[in-house]
Protein 1
Amino acid sequence: MSFFGLTCTRNRETEFERKLRANDREYNLSFKYATNGIKTSKYNFFTFLPLNLFEQFQRIANVYFLFLLLLQVIPQISSLSWFTTVVPLVLVLAVTAAKDATDDINRHRSDNRVNNRKVQVLIDGKLCSERWMDVQVGDIIKLESNQFITADLLLLSSSEPLNLVYIETAELDGETNLKVRQALTVTGALGDDISRLAGFNGEVSCEPPNNRLDHFTGTLLFGDHKFSLDNGKILLRGCTLRNTHWCYGLVLFGGPDTKLMQNCGKNIFKRTSIDRLMNVLVLCIFGVLALMCAVLAVGNLLWEINKGYQFNIFLPRQEDSGASLSAFLTFWSYVIILNTVVPISLYVSVEIIRLGNSFYIDWDRKMYDACSDTPAEARTTTLNEELGQIKYIFSDKTGTLTQNIMTFNKCSINGKTYGDVYDYLGQRLDVTKNTEVVDFSFNPLADPKFSFHDHSLVEAVKLGIPEVQGFFRLLALCHTVMAEENKEDDLAYQAQSPDEGALVTAARNFGFVFRSRTPESITIVEMGKQQHYELLAILDFNNVRKRMSVIVRSPEGRVSLYCKGADTVIFERLHPSCRKLMEVTTEHLNEFAGDGLRTLALAYKDVDEEFFSTWKQQHHEASTALEDREAQLDKLFEEMETDLLLLGATAIEDKLQDGVPQTIEQLSKADIKIWVLTGDKQETAENIGYSCNLLREEMNEVFVISGNTPEEVKQQLRSAWMTMKPDMAEGMVFLPEKILGKRGSALKDDVVAGEYGLVINGNSLAYALEDSMELEFLWTACMCQAVICCRVTPLQKAQVVELVKKYKKAVTLAIGDGANDVSMIKAAHIGVGISGQEGMQAVSSSDYSFAQFRFLQRLLLVHGRWSYLRMCKFLSYFFYKNFTFTFVHFWFAFFCGFSAQTVYDEWFITLYNLVYTALPVLGLSLFDQDVNDVWSFQHPQLYIPGQLNLYFSKMAFFKCALYSGFSSLILFFIPYAAMSDTMRQDGNDLGDYQSFAVVTQTCLLFTVCIQLSLEMTYWTAVNTLFVVGSLVLYFVVTFTMYSNGMFRLFPSAFSFIGTARNTMNQPNVWLTILLTSILCVLPVLAYRFLAIQLWPTINDKVMFKARQAKSAPLPPSKRTRIRRGSSRRSGYAFSHAQGYGELVTSRRFLRRPAVSHSTYFTPMKSSPGFIIPMGRSAGYSPTEGPHNTKAQDMEVTSLQMYRTIQDHAL
């Protein structure tokens, strides 16, 4: 589990250069460098209450309700009891404070867990166990194998030969393969001698704290000599020490100054777009409220002047109280009465709804990963509805889209393909978990984790076919892998790229086992027989060559060159006799690439001894040249790598996580744009882009931005948008104003003909993100269907997210699984962490987490869309019912002399939002859904209205307010007119104030319940119980409170004695309730009927289809196999790194001596189960058709099929 904290900030003078001295704390303390402790918590025991209340009262609504409470304690203006406001306010503050306290307690625990970890520190000549938080700059610490690196260290010495250490950087860059670091020779001589280490007083001058993970500059002054320091000598916090017994390091940066923490980004308080809209609407409502109160205050002034004197006899005025004072007090009285336009129960209900929808995510079994026993988790409860409005997804690659596991999948050897499985009719079968695997029991050195399904390949190896054995011999010899053997026959490979590890493991299982290497030799076991090959030269990889070769001398004395690399460069160097084999192999490579596999070609040649001797002498001279060394070596490599003989090709699968292509396809249908931001190499990222269907061969063009200067990047960007928008003038100057439009408006997408992709590397992205070019980059990228940014730093990931947020005004989501993704997870509106192989740092900083990328489509298309839909319905209905409730007071004011008399009973006002309408609206907001999850997946375009804010916006709010005004007019004037001159059956007057109040509030409750029923599209027993139960509860409470018994107990509190009983027994009252309810909802029914008939939305169409299909079984969703017929191929070279060949042959890569090798091998016999080969090479075809025929017509993906579907098809 990852344990690294978040960024903590300190106020300190800007640092331009760091100077420190080893083992001298007094000297280093004078610079006031940060210690290694971190602090991410916000509060402590004493500051929690004041700080938390201060934060909560920054919300406008809380200040407003506090102001109302103060008004209600003034008797002259309050017509409502104080408890109607104080109870809900205290409840909201308490619930929010409890949640904030819980979150901060978790942060305290995380900080303590990190800060209290132990490490051995050299103090006063002794190794002492110290807490991480007590480690200081300039300390020398000792680390042991599998320990996390405590701080950013200068490596001093290690237990390995030549002072090498092996580190895993998964928490930093997402790569799980090991990296090598090497100490200076002068410090390596210190070894583990404590006395010498304690006497080390070297002085380091280096760069100040920064976030560049791949760069470090500094110098070490030791004795009378100065030594240069670079990134290869630095161990960064966040890495893990592997396969190294011990090492010593000098602390350069601690705590918040470490590169890991510098890349973590700031903690940002995230708020949804609906929250931001609510703030605007609340301000508007306050303005309307002030206007209404002012109108009524003026009305009171005029009434007092014109009519007030007539009431002085039985309502005498107080001394010094004139009409103006009465109007002033009336203004504030109506502020209290009309405050229900924004009731505090709104915020209580919103928090409950968000909490409930968060539980749905936590409880969703379809988002539970059984393999890792990891459920989905909503780590925040405030962003659920934002999940239904995502427009841009920013994804990491390694560990997020892929499993970061390379597997040997297929191969082509001497014109035959291996790896597919066929039935007895010659039909290719899909490989599943139940497919029989090859039995490698004949090989005691085989890796038990390796699996292969084509039995014919192992049979070909056993039969001794020269080309097949030569193929695997090449894989066992041509690489830079290091072998470890902790115990006899227990091999473990350390590869600097996962591709190499997969290929060497494949050769190992098929009987060609790489055992060990020295700078001069390679030892392998060939079909049970141990062989030693003399390593004569390694022709190393670089980005231009895209291949690597080894020259070896076999035990028989024959000199051979083995080469592997990208097929395009290998084929150029083949002997003319291989032309026909090359054509066949090309077809196989196209087929492999069509399946999204990473391919490379293998070739060899025998080298003449005399030619090699001459070449070797030239190679030595070139490698020691002081000028043009690289050019001379490249020329020699070209001379050697000619007239090669083709052996075949391999196909490696960089295993995508389950369901990644389908998920990307679904999200694309939902008009969500996906950008991949990865630290991987460009070619690797491109290949994954094709594999997961993000990039497609059907695209018109995929632009590659790889300029090394700002001018080159600008020219490449301009060339890209000129290609997509050829109608633009060739020499047009790019003006941001033409694209951005009015200041503050969102950057609009331009419609382009065709589909395009964009790939940009980290160096070019640094220029593209500059102020002068960022808009041009964003505009170009947004015209593309897919964008891949490779070789990017964690900070650049966050910068890209911020750029889109700034100019697109769209909702963004970032998803990743490593510490290198934390900055973009924090920067995006929504952060999703995947609990994978790279620790839990991303999860700890995320808003939502789960184990597989495929769960993202369910999170967005189901939970997100439902949450957004429910929240929008809730807000629309909530504003409707409260506006309607409040506006009736406004109309009543014109009939009560503007006296601030309430139209309803005080108890009804108190219970209206808390009891009578609370449960029905919660039922709507927690259980409603337009269509179920199956239909949501089948029609992902249902997600698009959320991106466009169609369900709730300023216009929707304005319509809601108008409709509420209409309903309030009906609710006031129909009962008023019906009861004005009405008599009860016993002859008494029915038109008194109390009877009118009961009838009006009953009409209101029936109307809002019917309106809610119309809003509800998914009825459950709970919903029904809430709606019917609320009406029943209203009558029970009303008859109880208006009974004789309650009046006798509390005469001043329950003054409506007998009103309910005397009113509800009149038939004309029920007729009034029926008429009022029908008139209120009739416009809604009419509008919805016409809208569905004339302007149906996508929701209306899908809901209609769902109702039609209810009686029939739902058709299974189409799962078209995602395949791209393509000529695009990748090679081994694409994920390799330059310089490892030199490291192998320079004796700097030596490991500890391996244990004695065993060559136990079972006799080479064909097992009975292998009599009938089932692979391609068997040559068996009952249909007499070739197995390797290339498909004439490219298979159409379901994404393409979707793009041809017109809306009217729904």
Protein 2
Amino acid sequence: MNATDKADFELGAVAHVNFRVRCETLSHGEEVFLVPSGGLGQRKSFVLHTTPTDFPWYHTLNPITLPLSAKHPHDVAEGGSEGRPKSKFTYRYAIHRAGVFHRWENPSDGGPEQPHAADFPAEPAEGGEPVHEVPLHLIQSREVYTVNDVLGITGAPANIDHNRLPSHQGLQRAQNLHARHNSSDGALTISALRISANQGGVGAPVGAPRKKAVGFAPAPVSHHRSSGGTGSKSAPKQAVHLNSTDGLVVVSAFLPVILNRSDDGKWSAEWDYEMLLSMQTHLRVTRVGVVKWRGWHGNTQEKAGVPRNERRLVEECLLPFNCVPVWVDPILFGEMYNGFCKGVLWPVLHNVTSVYSNGPEDDNGDGASKISEVDGNEFSEYSLDDVEQGPIHGGRGREAELWAAYTAVNRQFAEKVVQCFHEGDLVWVHGFHLLILPSYLTRRIPMAKVGIFLHTPFPSSEIFRTLWCREDLLRGMLNADQVGFHLFEYARHFLTSCRRLLGLHYGMIPDASGGHTLAIDTAGRNVAVTSIHAGIEPPVLRQVLIHQSTMERVSSLRTQFPDKIIFCGVDRLESLKGIPLKLLGFERFLTRCPEWVGKIVLIQVGIKAFERGEDFHRTESETCALAQKINEKWPGSVHLQILHEREIRLQQRVALLRAADVCVVTSIRDGLNLLPLEFTIAHQDALTDLGRADGRKRGICILSEFSSSTRVMRGALHINPWKISEIASAFFQAANMQEEERLRRLSIASEFVTRVTTQRWALAVMLDLKGVHKNINPVQFSGAGLGLNYRLLGMDTGFTSLDSALVTRAYKKSKARLILLDYGGTIVSNDNLDSLTRFQMVKERDGKSVPTARMIDALRGLCEDKRNTVFVVSGKERHSLTKTLGDIPNLGLAAEHGMFISWPTPKTSSKRRWETLVPETDRTWRSLAVTIMEVYTSRTHGSYIEETEMKVLWQYRDADTEFGSLQAKELEDHLSKYLRSFPVDVLHGGLKEGGYVEVRPKGVNKGVLAMRVIKRFPDIAQKGMVDFALVLGDDHCDEPMLSVMRQIGRRVLEARPRPNQPLLPMPATLQLVDVSSCDNYVSPDLDIFTCTVGKKPSAAASYLNDVDSALELLEGLVKVSTRGNRFHSALDLASLPKMTSVGERSLSDGEVLGAPTMSKSLSMNTFSLGRQEEHVTPAKNWMTGLALAPIEDPEEEDDIWF
């Protein structure tokens, strides 16, 4: 410490600190306050603010001044040098809801709430509560810092940014701070204190960073809990790397190679550098796809495709390229590629829907016949694919055939990928041709990390929903672990479609490298969504540019149009490319600026797009007509060339771009378009003195704002191609641009082109894919569904199908049993799945579902066993439960999620008596809640109000997805504000839970009911402690009950000695509750089974497939109870306690001495024992021999009841 710093410190130095906290789980209407642990001498708390742009980051508006006073001035840093006292500033974050204190932050940020209070406690950290710490000895006096936190994360080192002034002195002090930090505090790593400069300005030192380095706060803890049921600290984040041992399977519709066949039948191959996936890498890459064949094209059905007897030769030819061909029948592939992909998907993905037919000929398929008029040679020229001709426009009633072709080709691709896959490989699928391929791969190789990347736009949900196969396509993409797009605009449309069509949620989740990733939550697993624009390979283009043939072609073009500014365009002849709009804009420019006539020329290359059918022919004729019209007015102004794709390959295209001065792209909807990037590389030398020596005004792009490259080519002139005057203005601006501005724009455009190459783009995507959490405990993945509805479910370790035999054994040996059953979805088919049925049920326009006769008999049989205490816990009203189940003796009922309880009673003739779970003293809140809900119902179409005795619900499941969710959040905030003085809870269930906002009395849920039943168990069952519990539920309303019962079971297991047998982690969906009050009411030998009906993420330990499976389980338990009273096997007799003879055995509950004791056994012939004498000579008893060899555990015989 230098003398100045020491003097400042001893005089009571201060530092100014801004606080930022990342709040991922904060609900709508909640606020964050920073509360010091004590003694700043200022106000008690500091409110943090956010904006729509900053969310989820909350920050203080003004810096907080922290005193750096020394309590122990004699403290010396380690190493012997004089140091700063190691004092700390500690604080916590508090959450306010509706203007009042709601809770403190906690490690999981979702644990039990603290009691409400009017203000904060004086010492929030008292009692050892976790706090955030800022080590004051690491910060300097009179400096400004920013502390970055994550809500609930208190154990990680402080993440501090030093906002130093851009001066040499500040740089030196920062270096000193680094040195002291490294030497004096070995417990902290250098990343604990990040010192970075603000944006550079005047006076910034040489070499200082121009932009502030953004450092994320420590990542939130893992959402999985430790075996102890508490949140555990997340493991240190490991950087994700790709090395030469990593395997990658790249799947695309076509292989990135070009095949040739000589006249003597020899095959050869070369890389197709036109394709994005032809790049070379150090990874072990296997490419899978259909071959392109530039030699023999297969124009007839008899000779279509590669001959079967030569396919082995082609495979050997492709072996050095690590390419594996997929041999698909050409006619089938043509149906898939031309019929479905180009005819159906291509227009929709580009936000085009053909609602009106062009004429009656469309229905007759004349569009396809017009293509067939093209001779076979032209078809083979445009195709360049191993495909056969097929109809191309829309479904036209052929949806089933086209969809069948699409699925068949995807299945064949899946077979080939499985053959090439090795454990640990990454699978990267490309293009809209293979959208459902991940669905097939997850069945065969569920352990593989699969990514899919779309090189086309993704339409808005209103356009995408017009597809008849929309759900299948979305589910196919979501079966991948990562979905990639070139722009976030496309990713946003995909997210919206998933939300609107499938009801899924998305948000930011922690990733493997310590940052956060945008992901969709689907069936308990997260699908990452990335948006990274692809680039080009500048070295490859530079090699082409310096090639002799390229230079000769450039010279020829410049000689052909001497002393003229050359505008160029290379587009496929289809309406989406906007060539007619380009020509109209050029015509208007020449009309308004006649002085440029003869000084400029537009070279437009049109690539034949036969696959577009009628659209190609129409665009071609319109383009030719416009070019002819312009040349008639101003001869030589437009040079139109219509070429086959093979005639304008990379070498010819680069020569044209190099010769041109301005590139023009006017597409009205475009995915990946690399032409502007190639043009920029072709003119990058204009930034040097040598390149400017030619005196040309070159290097400017006119780029449509509907092209993906617009977002990355910031130096281009951006236009709206639908506005002809704007295109004409861009022509004028490019022709008259000053050299300084032109070079500045070219420099800006070059920044992205040189920085983001194809390899860097692929590396970024692969790192994201490799970083996907898969095959890591405690989550495992399980498959469910049939056909294309097959999907992966994220399950917790140990979540398996319920073992009925295990339940039976525990049931048989127990004496005090508790059975808790949900109603809808568990003992009766769920009547909430269909929205219309739900609405009719609420409005009492239709009957409600009732249990079947078999289910009623099963419940009655369980209740007849005096060892059983059975409860049906439902969300329905009590009159409905009484009507369907009220006549079953000894059956307990709980209505409206446990608010109303009817204890088991043998008397069913009289009216059932009900009591409430919590006292309901004030019901005036109902009218206020309904009044508020009516306001939102009137302005939210599709919503309605549902009232019961206990609660009031606002249902919005039928409303617009986005608008309904926004209105629900606002309604929740509104109700929380105006009902905060009433003893009620305001609950918001998202679309996954049915879409509702509910107001109910405070403290009412099925979990609280379960604890109440257990505490009353000795009274209602007239037994001791519970030694068997079976809990069945099916939806989110049952999760509190399943969570409570599972935690009770966990406490029992933890109390038992288990040497070297660690317990499995508790599931992430578990709702932590204090269940210690139930310890005195459960047996140490308790066997507890929690089960959800339906395979889905749950707090339960196991699952049953459906209601029928639940019925079979209950009927099996009834058989065990019945057999226990009437039937015995030899094994049962051997295990009877204290049995020396049949007459001297001990009596079970309810048995009468002298009554007939045995009937026909399940494993023995019929025999009968009548009344036995009280004293029988053992030697005369024929069963004595059997009793001499008792079997202690009759488990083997228990399975026969199935």
Protein 3
Amino acid sequence: MSFFGLDCVRKKERELERKLRANDREYNLSFKYATNAIKTSKYNFFTFLPLNLFEQFQRIANAYFLFLLVLQVIPAISSLSWFTTVVPLVLVLTVTAAKDATDDIVSAICNLCMIFFPRADLLLLSSSEPLNLVYIETAELDGETNLKVRQALPVTGDLGDDIENFAFLLSGEVRCEPPNNRLDRFTGTLTYAGQKYPLDNEKILLRGCTLRNTEWCFGLVLFGGPETKLMQNCGKSTFKRTSIDRLMNVLVLCIFGFLAIMCTILAIGNFFWEMNEGSQFTVFLPRQEGKDAKFSAFLTFWSYVIILNTVVPISLYVSVEIIRLGNSFYIDWDRKMYFARNDTPAEARTTTLNEELGQIKYVFSDKTGTLTQNIMTFNKCSINGKSYGKKHSFLLDFSFNPLADPRFMFHDHALVEAVKLENPEVHAFFRLLALCHTVMAEEKTEGELLYQAQSPDEGALVTAARNFGFVFRSRTPESVSIMEMGQQRSYELLAILDFNNVRKRMSVIVRSPEGKLSLYCKGADTIIYERLHQSCSKLMDEFAGEGLRTLALAYKDLDEDYFSQWKQRHHEASTTLDDREDKLDQLYEEIEKDLLLLGATAIEDKLQDGVPHTIEQLSKADVKIWVLTGDKQETAENIGYSCNLLREEMNEVFIISGNSPEDAYALEHSMELEFLRTACMCKAVICCRVTPLQKAQVVELVKKYKQAVTLAIGDGANDVSMIKAAHIGVGISGQEGMQAVLSSDYSFAQFRFLQRLLLVHGRWSYLRMCKFLRYFFYKNFTFTFVHFWYAFFCGFSAQTVYDEWFITLYNLMYTALPVLGMSLFDQDVNDLWSFQHPQLYMPGQLNLYFSKKAFFKCALHSCYSSLVIFFIPYLAMNDTVRDDGKDVADYQSFALLTQTCLMFAVSIQLGFEMAYWTAVNTFFILGSLAMYFAVTFTMYSNGMFLMLPSAFPFIGTARNSLNQPNIWLTILLTSILCVLPVVTYRFLMIQLCPTINDRVIFKVRQAKAAPPPLPRRARIRRTSSRRSGYAFSHAQGYGDLVTSGRFLRRPAVSRSSGFAHTGRTTTGFSPMGRSAGYSPTGRPQNVKVNDVEVTSLQMYRTMDHTL
């Protein structure tokens, strides 16, 4: 059953295996599998109000004010009208409820707008396409936009589209794995007509995929509703809270304790007053029976809990959410973070972490697609020990090949000559590239080929083979057709040993037209080396020092008898339901032995524009950048030098090889502290050969022991765990789908935008939030402390010093907009100066703007201001008369004078807090003061008193008091005394101990807000030689698809996101690296400087001396 949308059903036993029978409803219902109903909204019409109120009152502040409302209903306790608490509470609850309802409606609409087809996880039975193929797009599942293929079993595909055949002839039984969240695998069997058939992921249509180029298909429902793999992956993400949020929770609890102390002091004061002075009033104010001084003190305690409730600001959380929402819009609207080439703007996917962007200490970055473009170019290769691909030679002319890709570029004529001379090793090399892959080819017109590859590496390699005369043309489930030097040849495709993250290689077994049986294999170099024949030498040192992604190619000839026996065992393993993957891996290991090395490929993945400058800027801001990549050590190290992460002056480079025992145990519990201690001693950290799980473990390790704010940035599905583990996750929308973006808190298209996100938006958001909190606590504490001092002059009777309407409107109307205006528009320096002086970012890392110490200073300042605001008017009105000789020292005049002094004091203090005045800020401050006087004169008018005498008792107080010169002189004196210590303290601090902010602001004023000079950047030259390596970039799943008949037999509609051509293009990026010259001003930066600032600490000291 369900109550208010909360699942109250007892958790059923864990399902070990799913059993289904086609056309047997009674049998299937006996297992009580989930229906296909899915609830994506949080509320409905009937449950919204109770559920939302229940959630809101779980917040301490809201529950506290509800408790106050109950106290105010008790006449013996409350000295305030009910509306002083009800109005603020209802407003806060309403605003929050409206926000929650809007979010839930938008979420539901988004889910309704997603056209999911199919609506459940299905076993594909038949389709309208030849060989029962189905073409699907899985962008909603894994972010990939390339077309994928699924194919039904032939035994069910023969049933066609006749519904009667399915109803009467299909009577098979499916046994498969229980519901899980694995999108890349499926294990099951179909028993039909006495035969058992294996089921894998390539026969399944998942909820969330979209059919393309397919008229119809039939399927058997395996998982429905919440049991579908899509919904299994929709688990709740960890709720991320900022460090300021956690500090605020602690401070609110401290405020509660301080409130209890103040109320206790005043209750004790009431007890002694009643004992000493109260007895004198019993003549005309007799006490009720049984109510003595102790009971009076008890009631006074709760009365002051009500009066001093403003020390716990109820509107604080709502104001914080408004500020965060506004600063999120600034990120969404920032044109300087918009990437026009892909039409991709920056996006703040969360509104709760903006100020945390100004406190980042550690950045964990992926390499491929994050620092680099993930656009692969075939640059070099090594064949039979000879290297090809001279960097500075002329471009090759491929006019001899009519099927060549005109955008492919290569620089070594010797390789073309070797191909034309029919060098057997060279031909075997490119034959392997043309055969060993899972690329789909589409040929709309003769000679115009379009390749759809699941990874950029695959497309680059097949395109390279195409240009050198080995053109992949088409494929069927049983064959691969290629054009070898103008001659059409068809190879029988016997098996594909598919890629996965553990194997890091893929192989194909083919039979040539001459009947020769061969296995071709390509993969990561370390993996291939372990499987080479003893006679082979390892020729992988050809591409040292260039940061290229390398891939080893090998082959072996197979014996017919052995392969027949191996094929039989392969079929048996593929039909088993238990440990299918392990058994298949054992068979793959068995046949992939004693390989002969053909050579290696070297693919260049260029740096993105502006990466070196961005890393340089963040380093100056004392942000530690760690690169976590699955690539080989040498490749990662060379990219580190290219992007200025590593420099030549770093004489000692600490390295742990990916195959060493130290690396294997570095993240173990016993070694993690030593690993972290060693890494933190380094100026730069690059972790290579790491898995997605290890990336998340490194992030968690730093979070656990360093107590620093972390940020993880990546572009691929293998970065999702790291992005979710960090305090802030940033996704880059690149070539590897949208999974990283969908899991992130912020997203944009280029790594270089990270510096603007942190140094500008992050720093401003943190500065604004800290100013807001300091001022918010100041104005509320000052307001409340005046009540505390007044208690000593009113016999601790719980009488309020202000008018009740002023108490109600103080936070809601009089002081709300000015502080929001400062929190949304304030900035100490503009974005150009923020880039010019990255050291401005450091105070946020050290929590200098808001901390427990800053909160204590704010409380002391409020205490002083409240003393001035109470005692100056009190002394000024004591024994004072008006111009006409009448007495002005009445309670109502004193209340009006005190609250007016308070309004001027907090408004002037806000003016001192703001560093950036705008028309909006000015209007808010002056408008709030004007609103205060307008409302005051209206509520204190004769008309309002005649309408509701009990609600508006201050009749004529405003016009009778504010026309006196001594009243305005008192307001002026109070305001000056309130701000005088602030002005004095700030003047002395700027003169004696100026901060980096003070120095930069002074420099800005000297420059009269002119744009800063272009920053000088050091040109780093490097001549060292480093080995390069490559972690095989590929995905599992296409091998079985090709061999089992799931192929692109007939031309399909091409997709713009599919792989078309590889190589350098005329519309590519501008030259990158240290010569890219990216700057926030958009002007080139090519000025030489002699010295390089080594550490951020030295830079900081340099700034102190030079500014």
